[in-house]
Each structure stands twice: as structure tokens, then as C-alpha cells.
Amino acid sequence: MTSAKMLAFFSSQTTCSASSSSTSWEPFAHSPHPGLFLWEAFVSGTGKPASNDNLDIRIADARAGAQALLAAMPSPEHANAIPVGDTSVYSLAGTALLRTGWSTATALLSQPCLVLKTAPPPVIC
Fold first, then answer.
1. Domain chopping of the chain, boundaries
2. N or C: which end of the chain has fewer CB within 10 A?
3. How many whole angstroms separate alpha carbon 19 and alpha carbon 105?
4. Each residue's pLDDT tens digit, 58-97
5. 62, containing H or E segment
């Protein structure tokens, strides 16, 4: 839920709205208008960044999530950790949109979104 809190702060600092934010890649990628794309990063196990005294672990986790999205480009939907058609989800990205007030559509809570698993950190020899 840390991401929902961060997004709530971000929303108070910007003029972004529900009409310019999306939890679905295809509509976002093909929109003629710039917007904000929300996805979920599964940061756990071997994909969890190592502890680093110089970097807050939440920032390291966020960086790992952003790197997972970049690594999955140009078609991140092919790297989705959620099987196509799985409707037994609770969307944290949808929760974040509701929390910020950018949307009032409670259907977002059960709408699958892009979920990317983070990769293990590289081994440096």
C-alpha cells in the first residue's frame, strides 16, 4: 500500500486526472493524449533488491519495478505475471486511483492490470 500513499501525495501535487491515467497497457499505449500509466510490480524473493545503506529500500523496490517495466518494453503485456482471463484479482493500482480521487469506479478493484515480477539483481564478478 506504500504505492497508494505515494500516489496520493503525487496526486495532490499535479493536475493529472482519471481521464489521463490508466491501469491497462493497450489503451494507454494507443491513446493520443499523454497520461499516467499505473502497473504493479511484484518485488519479492530473488527479485527483491539487496539492502543498501545509501538507498531507502522502498526507493530500491520502486526502482526495481521501473526497471521491470523498461525491460519488458515494447510489449510489457507479454511479461504480465497475471494469467490472461484471471479475474480473481484485487488491484492495488485500482486502489491507488480510487484513493487519489482520480476515479470513482469501484470496478477497478477487481480489474486485472499489468503485474511485472522484478528480476534478480545482476551478479558482479
1. 2-117
2. C
3. 12
4. 788 888 888 999 999 999 999 999 877 777 888 888 888 8
5. helix 57-72
